[in-house]
Amino acid sequence: MALDRLKSVAQHVTGTLPPPHPFDPLSNAEIEAAVQIIRQQYGQLHYNAITLKEPLKKEMLRWLENPSIPRPVRIADVVVVAPGGKVIEGWVDLKAGKVTKWLSLEGVQPLNRLPWRIYRLLSMFAGKIQRSSNNVRLVVFQQKICTKSIVIALMYYRPHMDDSQYSFPLDFCPIFDAAKQEIIHIDIPEIRRPVNKAKPNNYHVDAIEKEGGYRTDIKPINITQPEGVSFKVEGRVIDWQNWKVHVGFNYKEGIVLNNITYNDKGTERPIFYRLSLAEMVVPYGNPEHPHQRKHAFDLGEYGGGYMTNSLSLGCDCKGAIHYMDAAFVNKAGDSTTIKNAICIHEEDAGILFKHTDFRDDSVVVTRGHGTVQLEIKLTGILNTYAMNPGEDTKGWGTEVYPGVNAHNHQHLFCLRIDPNIDGPNNTVFQVDATQGAGEVGSKENPFGNAFYAKRTKYSTVKEATSDYNGATSRTWDMCNTNKLNPHSHKPVSYKLVSREVPGLLPKEGFLVWKRAGFARHAVHVTKYDDEQLYPAGRHVPQTSGEPSRGIPEWIADAILSA
Amino acid sequence: MALDRLKSVAQHVTGTLPPPHPFDPLSNAEIEAAVQIIRQQYGQLHYNAITLKEPLKKEMLRWLENPSIPRPVRIADVVVVAPGGKVIEGWVDLKAGKVTKWLSLEGVQPLNRLPWRIYRLLSMFAGKIQRSSNNVRLVVFQQKICTKSIVIALMYYRPHMDDSQYSFPLDFCPIFDAAKQEIIHIDIPEIRRPVNKAKPNNYHVDAIEKEGGYRTDIKPINITQPEGVSFKVEGRVIDWQNWKVHVGFNYKEGIVLNNITYNDKGTERPIFYRLSLAEMVVPYGNPEHPHQRKHAFDLGEYGGGYMTNSLSLGCDCKGAIHYMDAAFVNKAGDSTTIKNAICIHEEDAGILFKHTDFRDDSVVVTRGHGTVQLEIKLTGILNTYAMNPGEDTKGWGTEVYPGVNAHNHQHLFCLRIDPNIDGPNNTVFQVDATQGAGEVGSKENPFGNAFYAKRTKYSTVKEATSDYNGATSRTWDMCNTNKLNPHSHKPVSYKLVSREVPGLLPKEGFLVWKRAGFARHAVHVTKYDDEQLYPAGRHVPQTSGEPSRGIPEWIADAILSA
């Protein structure tokens, strides 16, 4: 079986089958081949992630320029957890069929693949623990929370399996040791809060039918594409109205857009080398223990790819749809598949493709007019906590339902942009709407009406770490200063609009502030560093200055939902 | 003829015909009736505007509460220009058939209805003046620009009547006296700029066909509503998914939304008494003479209603469409009609109705989810100016086409909101995303992660004049503090989101700064003053602290397009 896999991979690389595009995610065959190669050398291990180690940018740019030269070698980027919780990062050269890197990492923990497992493990205790109320302390272990593989479980209860658990938060937090696979502590607040007695919310069809059914006063609006769609898909490359984009996918960032180009009257102009959502930082604003601990790194800790739901039952898009699957590795080392992880379709508004159903219901949309947007819908999926009748939220949250305290939190979305505007040598300018110099009556500004778009070039990483300025409607231009627009004689550019950003609200020195790193700022620009930037598969340091080491070149867009 | 009109109006008010809703705009019959009544008393006059004098709010609220009581009297609000340019404002009681107010106003000028007339008048000179080059100075009058009815014409040239004139700006500005109906001066710059020789832009179908025709690579996306629309229209009241709204219209603001309510499980809850776009201020940022003069008040000076294009040829909306007309008065006093001034339709995105084609292509959209938005599309319709080959814009503009200098400008949209959230007694709070008090380690904020939505009540008009704060993602809540949400126990509220506002960029003391008044700020709240707020028909003071006296209760949303 495994040897068959190896053979089929061999066929890939020997060319008897059409080889994958160098940006294509690893296939199930490639993933299992990598596992076989590792097993032969290291035996049984717990697999955390296997993903494509993306080719070096300079190597890729050479190949994109001339696809007739040998394509970059396929390399699997592997993260395994050895007994005792030690994290190992490895590379497997799938052509040579051997491990080329095997590095045991210190001071990091792997991305957490256990939340649902822990939930099942703990939810069965919930009722009992509640009933035994204060005696629950008897079962508390005395062990300190200090090791690297600690998971804090936020507990919920479901009266019925289809009910929304967010209406039934529990007031205690079991502490789980992922390495030991056991509960080492249960955090219980001084003030106990009983299980919510409020009416459950259940949004499943049958429950809604029971409550009188769906509304009937809305007439259908049908959208049809009688001649099919206007885009073509070859492999994972979408071709739409002179735009081309390769759609990648990995366990951490989810969707990845590579090599976005525009055919300008016959000339293929590169625009972006790579676009992805690198991280989402979610600090909570309640200072009361244990809520200060709540600050998720949704991608670095859980994985945007891993949290993708299958759209195999179809998505809510209308018209003609094209789907793509996603391949992962499970703990045992078998390859798994999420059917229809990506949905590509065309909308009247000119949407090129759409990928939905992150755990936070984020929606990635690429529009035909040539800008790439990351639109996020927050649908109230946030950590809630129990409260007693009449309890004061003290402004740290809102009682959204009887006995349910929705704590203040931020969603800081870290967008990683690797511009390639008419080539890789791009420059970034900060642009501020600015009043002209000189007061009313002065020679240079006699009437005081002068204003202009002030452009400030970023020369160092330090000055390139900047925040949004609402007073100047600050934006950021990515330019190729060697290529001028024939009319304006200004550099050809794309503009980053990253507004409505209050910045990271927790104060300097706090854990999330250290971990969020560049995510504290509206924009951060790094000089290109191939090794550092890719692959996407990285681990969460305990208290580093970088957000889960998926270093965003750009940090874009934050929303406070209070 | 005129007496027939009077009779039909009489029939309205005596009830032999269904009477108009008190919010309905004046009908053609009512407009001509008002003119007849004025003529009998004052003879021939030049009519600038006749619009509904909206009933007093307290009177309307009484009637809305109990429509069986006598409805508010229909009153025409009239603006005429007497010989010599004197502006007179009058009220005509259409039931009593008499003039109840006739006020001669000082220091104001009427809204300008002449731009196209002036354009025609001057464009014929353009070529000649250009050819005679510097001798043109011979025709300049020495008269000063000081009277109240001065219009400065920004000149363009069209090689072909279908070409876009914005590619062919002329370098001189005739000064026109609207009262005298003559050109009193021609402003000619020291540096002359010849007529542009660049290739014309012509977007008409035949021109595009000549250039190879429209693209053929886009497949149709059809939207159909086989069972019709989900909304009902009775008179001018739209009923859609528990929402009700009266759609008014006047020559200045264009569309006006009145008495927006939501049927909450049988209870009709009022939300907004009135919503409109009250003004759009457009300052230009080029300090060089004569461009400091360029600052439009699109509604106060030209009229959003007057600038509405007829959609009689159909609009670009898909699916089932419902149209409404608009009635105006012309200079002579005859009533005129714009067919299909308003288009009401339903979109998949949940749009309730849509009104397009202001002169600046603004789009007013009401969405089903209960917020009222004003979305503005800027489609490059801005004043352009001529430039010589190689001339430096000095950053005050951008060469968007050879020889075409698009000057920096702002679009400040003044949205007037009259909230009526569960009743007329509403309060406004400023909401800022704010860090909790106390540094890391302090008792109240031990971990430094505390943050909350700080709410500041506006008690005086002075403190209610505020700007956007990007650092706190500032928003504004309109609340009924006497009505609490059953879950959150917070006042029922609607939130105003007015972001991306750099504020008015011209400096204090300059003409536009004085005239823009409250429009200088993101938000301004006035205590309710019936007389002052409505009717919409007002005039542009030369240098008042108010924006064209259509006092916005709220000033929302500005975009810098540089």
TrEMBL record, chains A, B:
What enzyme category does the UniProt record give? oxidoreductase
Q: Which residues form the Copper amine oxidase N2-terminal domain?
A: 21-102
SUPFAM superfamilies listed in its UniProt record: Amine oxidase catalytic domain, Amine oxidase N-terminal region
Q: Where is the Copper amine oxidase catalytic domain?
A: 221-368, 369-557
According to its UniProt record, how is this protein modified after translation? Answer: Topaquinone (TPQ) is generated by copper-dependent autoxidation of a specific tyrosyl residue.
Q: Which GO terms describe its molecular function?
A: copper ion binding; primary methylamine oxidase activity; quinone binding
Do you know which Pfam families this protein is assigned to?
Answer: Cu_amine_oxid, Cu_amine_oxidN2
Q: What is its EC number?
A: 1.4.3.-
The domain of life for this entry's organism is: Eukaryota
InterPro entries, alphabetized = Cu_amine_oxidase (IPR000269), Cu_amine_oxidase_C (IPR015798), Cu_amine_oxidase_C_sf (IPR036460), Cu_amine_oxidase_N-reg (IPR016182), Cu_amine_oxidase_N2 (IPR015800)
Instruction: Name its co-factor(s).
Output: Cu cation
GO BP terms in the entry? amine metabolic process
Note on cofactor: Contains 1 topaquinone per subunit.
What keywords appear on the UniProt entry? Copper, Metal-binding, Oxidoreductase, TPQ
The subunit structure is:
Homodimer.
Q: Which family does it belong to?
A: Belongs to the copper/topaquinone oxidase family.
Q: What is this protein called?
A: Amine oxidase
Q: Which organism is it from?
A: Glarea lozoyensis (strain ATCC 74030 / MF5533)
